[in-house]
Design a protein that fits this description.
Organism: Chryseobacterium kimseyorum
Order of helices and strands: HHEEHEEEEH
Number of helices: 4
CATH topology: Nuclear Transport Factor 2, Chain: A
InterPro entries: NTF2-like_dom_sf, SnoaL-like
Keywords: Signal
Helix content: 40-55%
Largest sheet: 6 strands, mixed
Radius of gyration: 21 Å
Protein name: Nuclear transport factor 2 family protein
Strand order of the largest sheet: 2-1-6-5-4-3
Length: 170
């Protein structure tokens, strides 16, 4: 009985140590991701085209607030270039961020509330660790809508989006 208890105790200690190591690794990666996302947002605010788009993986997608805005990296670069050239980009500041990891630690996903010129927005995305650096594989920007005003927003957007809905159904 004592031998079984000892073996079980050793097993629990090894399991605890492994879990602590994994958590410590993810804590380090969370800090790296937070630093990267803050620099990503700062590069946009500073209209630093090269740095901003350097955070995207070569095969990546940007999904904007308008239903028509789904671009691969090259398309998004073409769309964004005039804004960066005019130094009239966006300035997003993270207010609250959550980061999650796949078990193997090679993929992460995040969501964050952002203070923007559009008031609160949500940025979310998928990140992949490529050559030791976290890169954006997909970024989704959403405008938040308080529940108290959803009906008003739906009323405003209905004439615009009904045509799009019909087109998508056909």
């Amino acid at each position: 009985m004592k031998k079984t208890t000892l073996i079980f105790t050793v097993f629990l200690l090894i399991l605890s140590f492994t879990t602590i190591q994994a958590q410590a690794k993810f804590d380090k990666d969370k800090k790296e991701i937070a630093t990267m996302l803050d620099a990503f947002n700062a590069a946009a605010a500073q209209a630093d085209f090269k740095t901003y788009f350097g955070f995207f993986a070569e095969e990546s997608t940007f999904i904007g607030t308008d239903a028509t805005e789904v671009w691969d990296k090259k398309q998004f670069m073409v769309w964004a270039k005039p804004y960066f050239d005019k130094k009239s980009t966006w300035n997003f500041k993270s207010l609250k961020r959550n980061v999650y990891f796949a078990k193997d630690g090679k993929l992460a996903w995040f969501d964050e509330l952002l203070d923007t010129q559009m008031k609160l927005c949500r940025g979310s995305g998928v990140l992949e660790k490529i050559n030791g650096q976290w890169k954006v594989k997909q970024y989704v920007l959403s405008v938040t809508v308080p529940n108290e005003v959803v009906d008003k927003i739906v009323e405003i957007k209905t004439p615009i989006e009904d045509a799009m809905i019909q087109k998508l159904k056909n």
